[in-house]
């Protein structure tokens, strides 16, 4: 079946440090890939997406490239801020049943300190 | 439109009681989804509606769970005879889908259920 594996957290960084959160997936066919962010007490928000191999999704300084050969979609940011502290979820879209279901990873908590 | 609304935000109930949650999606969205998120895990799909029709249910949705979307607008999720294992965050999301186009969900803030 489909699955998403993320690096375990928490990841603790100093402000302005470089961020990488690893995400790999297993899927049948060619899924679309997503990163969602969840701030404390809030719902999940779509951060970025990529729908086919070699696509790069980007938003708010975050980037991720769909790598079919390594089945990966790692999230990166060149300089993190305290306001980036949140839980980040990697997800893939399946067309099973035509429902556009999302399969999520377990999430990676990011803590950014001054 | 203020996004996807869920009510209540928190619910504490005794084991064996029934609970019902409500979700109001973005008004022009035709699809509505329910997910469950337990502590330290990612959301897991429960069920989804296309307008008022419930088109798919996960095996996670036992017979004690029922969801409705009577007029293709708001939805309710009811859990009967709650168990401690039902304690989780219940997330609702909506999207607008035409053909194969899919642009991601909009999630609500969730209802946190605690069964004591």
Cα gyration radius of chain A (Å): 14 Å
Termini separation of chain B: 35 Å
Percentage of residues assigned to helices of chain B: under 10%
Mean pLDDT of chain A: 92
* First-last Cα distance of chain A: 41 Å
- As a percent range, the share of strand residues of chain A is over 45%
Overall average residue pLDDT of chain B:
91
Largest sheet of chain B: 7 strands, mixed
Number of helices of chain A: 0
Q: Given the helix and strand composition of chain B, which structural class is it?
A: mainly beta
Which segments of chain A are poorly predicted (pLDDT under 50) over 5 or more consecutive residues? none
Order of helices and strands of chain A: EEEEEEEEEEEE
Q: Summarize the main sheet of chain A.
A: 6 strands, mixed
- The parts of chain B where pLDDT drops under 50 for at least 5 residues are none
Overall spatial form of chain A: globular
Sketch the topology of chain B as an H/E string, one letter per element. EEEEEEEEEEE
Annotation, overall tally of beta strands of chain A: 12
Number of helices of chain B: 0
Describe this structure in words.
Chain A has 114 residues and is an all-beta fold. Chain A is 0% helix and 52% strand. In chain A, a hairpin with a 5-residue loop joins strand 5 and strand 6. The termini of chain A are far apart. With 116 residues, chain B is mostly beta strands. Chain B has no helices and eleven strands. In chain B, strands 2, 4, 5, 6, 9, 10 and 11 form a seven-stranded mixed β-sheet that branches. Chain B has a four-stranded antiparallel β-sheet with strand order 1-3-8-7, with no helix packed on it. Chain B is globular. The chains are: A mainly beta (114), B mainly beta (116). At the A-B interface, strand 5, strand 6, strand 10 and strand 11 of A face strand 5, strand 9 and strand 10 of B.
